[in-house]
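4.2 Preliminary Data

To establish feasibility before requesting continued support, the project team ran the inverse folding procedure on a target of 387 residues. The structure was first converted into the token representation described in Section 3, and no sequence information of any kind was made available to the design step. The complete token record follows.
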């Protein structure tokens, strides 16, 4: 009984780390508020905030693996929390566009360290048989944070400090996570395989891994693009104010939360291939539906459909990639986290397209076209399961 209590005490601050991980999803609604605050910004410039944040996943994922091997998992996670505290304090001290870009760059750096190091840290505080369930619960905790972010921001927009109240709230929460984990003793397992640049990039010799890596790029790019575009789409087509339209992102994240819970149940009954196919096509239906309607409730229903379809695709691709190269799990994980940099690629393009066309429908059309890659990937997923 005492051992179980000890495990419970250790797992709680680690699981709270997944909540902190969800802070990065505030970037979508933040872009819209920043654009509103600085009138010289167009969509293309405002969407550069996403690039400043997600670019770091491309360049720091593998170095973070090397750092983690040197200083340990817990210290790497603690360092990520320190960076998050610093990042959210920066706009409190000074608020202009360049400062906000720097702040979100630091958020991206901290989140890169967190995503690379937190999952391995979980293995040090739970039994092997409970690892999959614990990681699934962690993703649910992250989804809850993503769901709450737009709600808190909308509430804060009516306060004296405005939407920027989200920064001190996130800074204090990150500080709590830092102190909590720092005070929690965790005995880390001995280092196993190490991550190297050469061995990681050698994975690209496998065409399936290349296809799955691009799939991660597309998934994260579409996710950040949807977070950025959907509130503006509601403002354009449904006449909502930003503080109301921003709640549309909470509807999206709520659907993803439900989808993640339901996905765990469905994957017990159906194969990954069938569920992947169903999820990709369901999300496509949601995107096409958004293109075809201008009614508020229909738009919200369509984003729910898209969110339900999207919810489990990252996890399925991650699982299939690990099964494909099971003896090189560290390198596969580092490579796929690099794919999170897709959040830096698509939003700037969406900004240019919406500026040139004068409508957010053009940006949504681009998202839908990019999603066709996921439809193509269905064949690749069927291929890996037939071998």
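Position-by-position output of the design step:
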């Amino acid at each position: 009984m005492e051992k179980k209590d000890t495990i419970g005490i250790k797992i709680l601050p680690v699981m709270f780390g997944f909540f902190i991980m969800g802070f990065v999803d505030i970037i979508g609604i933040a872009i819209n508020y920043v654009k509103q605050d600085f009138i010289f910004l167009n969509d293309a410039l405002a969407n550069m905030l996403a690039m400043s944040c997600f670019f770091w996943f491309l360049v720091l994922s593998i170095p973070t693996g090397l750092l983690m091997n040197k200083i340990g998992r817990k210290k790497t996670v603690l360092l990520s929390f320190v960076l998050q505290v610093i990042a959210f304090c920066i706009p409190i001290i000074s608020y202009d566009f360049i400062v906000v870009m720097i702040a979100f760059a630091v958020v991206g750096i901290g989140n890169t360290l967190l995503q690379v190091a937190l999952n391995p840290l979980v293995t040090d505080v739970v039994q092997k048989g409970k690892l999959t369930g614990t990681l699934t619960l962690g993703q649910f905790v992250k989804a809850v944070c993503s769901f709450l972010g737009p709600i808190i921001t909308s509430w804060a927009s009516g306060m004296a400090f405005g939407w920027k109240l989200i920064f001190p709230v996130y800074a204090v929460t990150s500080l709590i996570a830092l102190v909590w984990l720092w005070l929690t003793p965790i005995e880390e397992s001995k280092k196993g395989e190490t991550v190297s640049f050469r061995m990681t990039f050698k994975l690209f010799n496998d065409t399936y891994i290349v296809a799955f890596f691009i799939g991660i790029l597309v998934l994260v790019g579409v996710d950040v693009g949807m977070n950025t575009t959907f509130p503006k789409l509601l403002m354009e087509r449904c006449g909502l104010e930003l503080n109301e339209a921003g709640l549309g992102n909470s509807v999206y994240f709520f659907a993803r939360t439900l989808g993640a819970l339901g996905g765990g149940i469905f994957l017990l009954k159906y194969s990954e291939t069938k569920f992947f196919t169903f999820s990709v096509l369901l999300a496509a239906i949601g995107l096409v539906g958004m293109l075809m309607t201008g009614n508020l409730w229909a738009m919200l229903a369509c984003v729910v459909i898209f969110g339900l379809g999207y919810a489990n695709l990252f996890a399925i691709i991650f699982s299939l990639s690990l099964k494909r190269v099971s003896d090189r799990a560290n390198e596969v994980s580092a490579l796929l986290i690099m794919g999170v940099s897709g959040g830096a690629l698509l939003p700037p393009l969406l900004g240019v397209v919406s500026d040139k066309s004068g409508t957010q429908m053009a940006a949504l059309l681009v998202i839908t076209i990019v999603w066709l890659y996921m439809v193509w990937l269905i064949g690749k997923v069927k291929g890996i399961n037939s071998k």
